[in-house]
Every structure is written in C-alpha cells, then in structure tokens.
Amino acid sequence: MELKEILYDQMRLSSRLVRKLKRTKNILVNGNKIAFHARLRKGDRVEVIMEEESNQFEPQNIPIDVVYEDMDLLILNKQPGLVVHPTKGHPIGTLANAIVYYMQERGESFKIRFVNRLDRDTSGLIIIAKNPYIQQELSKQMIDNQVEKRYLAVIKGCLETEKGTVDAPIGRPYPEDITRKVYAGGQPSITHYEAVEQLKDATVVRLLLETGRTHQIRVHMSYIGHPILGDELYGGKADILIERQALHAEILRFLHPRTGEPMEVKASIPADILELITKLS
C-alpha cells in the first residue's frame, strides 16, 4: 500500500491538510521523510506532525463556561450577547478573545477552530477543535448530518399541532441585507419542532435541526407565524421580558473523532430564558 493511501483512506486526512503537511514536511515513516508514492511494508510506522499555530486575537478576561474539554476538544456554553469571532464591527470582546485568555491562564496553546457558530444573542453550545484533524472530522460529520443539534426556544402564540416539521428553502436574496428569507432560490432547510410547555400567548419548544443554515430556526419559526420572542429581526419584536431572542443551543450529539465514542453534551438553560418562562407561566 502506498503512503498516500494510508493518509487518505486509513487516516482519512483531507486533501487540503495533506498538501499542507507535505509542504511543511511533517509526514514521516519510521521517523524519516519518504516519497509520497512510496510503498509501505507491514510494521511501518506513519507519523503525522500537527504543528501548533498561533492565534492573532488579543487575550481578554471574559468569563467562559466550559462544558467539556479534552486534548482535542473544547466545548463551551456561550452566554448571550457575545460575538463568536472578531469582525470589523466587533474587533474585540468576542468569544475568541476570551478563549485566548483562558489558554494563557492554563499554559496551553492551540489555534482556535470553531466547528459551529451561534448568533451573538443566541446562547448555548459551541465546539472548538484544538487541531486540524479534529476540525476536519467534525466538519465531515456536520456535512453528513451525523451531528444532532437540539435547541430550546420560546415562541410567540400557540402551535396548532404539538409536533411538526418546517421544510422550506432559506436564502439571502439581497446580499446587502443580513436577513434570510424562505424563497424558491434558497438552500434546502429542515427544522423539526415539538411543544413542551404552553405559556401565556407563548410556547416553549424544543427544535432539532436537520440542516444548518444561517438563522434557520429564527427564519422558520417566523415563516410559520410563530417568531421567537425578542427576535426583532424576524418579527419577534422587542420584548420587555427578555432583551434578546429566546433561543438556546441546548444539546449536541456526535461521535468523538479520535475514539469514535458517542458524545452528548448539554448546556444549562440560561437565567434570562428561565425568567421569561416563569413570568409567562
């Protein structure tokens, strides 16, 4: 078997990662650098060196809630109001800045690789891969719909049916507008929902994403006439009982890329959503 077959078929490395490893000469067989097409013998040891990459983010002492951590993964319960990654409008004060500070305090160093993203005002679970292989494998699971993503939300009104599915394409018809819409030219998007508690002119729902489009839950709930409370962008209007959209990424289920073991992580429901539910009960 050739070295390249080991890398692609058995180690399941992406073409992009293999090209980078070749360029940096970080593929070794029995401690030596050999030709990419060389044939290997039984007992040969293939070693791939993942070099640490630095982060360019300023460390900031912003509290983070660590739900799970090991040598490959850091999973956080993101608080609402926190942008995930620095942008032109939010160059500092982001989750990435907080993670760099967290690393420095622990004497660690790894490039921050977000596997999933959340809107600024959506709370809940964020996965950070600590090396490119883990990011690659989890991204594959995302594409193959092997990562189960469950959310909790408080929506306006009472649902006609306790359970349902919204299967409606979502897109961004106008590039200058950040809002997404349901329209024929959008990407296939599927959201499953289930009512768990009826409130005063509102409903607590749990949602399962079958696809992962930007703003998907917010768009789909608005589309069926039940926008998320506090979601001004999609018809939820400003709500005196909560200062952001009442949406929380509660549960993630996936296979650990290194061990293959099933993983389930859960983020506790934040205080502002619990308070909202109490006031509407």
Architecture overview:
21% of the residues lie in helices and 27% in strands. The protein has 281 residues and is α+β, with helices and mostly antiparallel strands. It has 2 domains: 3-48, no CATH class; 66-280, Pseudouridine synthase (2-Layer Sandwich), CATH 3.30.2350. The strands form 3 sheets. Strands 3, 4, 5, 6, 7, 8, 11, 12, 13 and 14 form a 10-stranded mixed beta sheet that branches. It has a two-stranded antiparallel sheet with strand order 1-2. It has a two-stranded antiparallel ribbon with strand order 9-10. It is elongated and about 70 Å long. The model has no long low-confidence stretch (mean pLDDT 90).
Query: End-to-end span in angstroms?
Result: 65 Å
- Look at the structure and name the CATH superfamily of the largest domain: Pseudouridine synthase
Report the count of strand segments: 14
Mean pLDDT: 90
Radius of gyration, in Å, reads: 22 Å
* Domains, number: 2
Helix content: 10-25%
> What's the level 1 CATH class of the largest domain?
Alpha Beta
How would the global form be characterised? elongated
Supply the helix-strand structural class. Answer: alpha+beta
Write the CATH fold name of the largest domain.
Pseudouridine synthase
The largest sheet, given as strand count, sense and whether it forms a barrel, is:
10 strands, mixed
Percentage of residues in strands: 25-35%
Number of helices: 6
Query: Which regions have little confidence, pLDDT < 50, spanning 5+ residues?
Result: none
